[in-house]
């Protein structure tokens, strides 16, 4: 999660200085004026080229960084809603991202009210050791931020309210099974992650009914710079890789580029709404995933990785890998979403070759 900062305030002050006018508002009012002035610029650009202004929570995370890069490349206005301005500024330096506004929590309201859409990706990573305290924080971190975002959207005047909310959830909603096939119509499971997802989604569903809501149930995202793959690759590079657990469990995955493209499509296309599974159309058994990973890395994939080793690496998040579920992106396929990487072999080659 990330937010707005001193760069824009400096711009406002320099404007007044150059015109020889003293700032007419106290500091608190200048902040409100500052954000809306930037949005006026974005609005003018929007009229010229269908540009959006998007507020993003979780922007410094694995998916969020790539999404911000994509939005920035297409010249959309971006509001990075964060708890740590310094962290966000280190990831999105002004020299590379000159038009991004970074806002800490007191400034979220103004940013959201000046946005056409909000993407909510915030939440504590699950790939850590699950003590009772950590499990509570995993749930609380998602629900707290989602609730805050929804309340700010709902509290916005009609003319300033964002038109779209894209809120992350996870395929953990379905529980686990080696035999069932899950799509967007399938019921929820009854384990801890399913409980987290149900409450997470219920919070997002409180958003104003005039706002188009998309709940993206995200699978295991594959990419070089984060996620489960970044933790699995070192095992294979040390010739210690192989089937994880039994290897028979299903692995519902998606390439990070397809994940970002799906979010982008949801923002732009009004046909995308409701629950959407963020997974590739071809889930695989975990033994097949590991075999393909070994092939791409030029390493053997015959040495099984015991459950306790996987849990030591992935913490409580190992349950996602060890139990698994076969999830199909029925909604995305129905709407004709063009998956760039529908097969895990091509996805791994693009990431690791």
TrEMBL record:
Give the SUPFAM superfamilies listed for this entry.
NAD(P)-binding Rossmann-fold domains
Where do the NAD-dependent epimerase/dehydratase domain residues begin and end? 55-270
| DUF1731 domain mapped to chain residues | 305-351
Instruction: Read off the InterPro entries from this record.
Output: DUF1731 (IPR013549), Epimerase_deHydtase (IPR001509), NAD(P)-bd_dom_sf (IPR036291), SDR39U1 (IPR010099)
The lineage's top-level taxon is Eukaryota
The record's listing under PANTHER family reads: EPIMERASE FAMILY PROTEIN SDR39U1, SUGAR NUCLEOTIDE EPIMERASE RELATED
Q: What is this protein called?
A: Uncharacterized protein
Tell me the organism: Ilex paraguariensis (yerba mate)
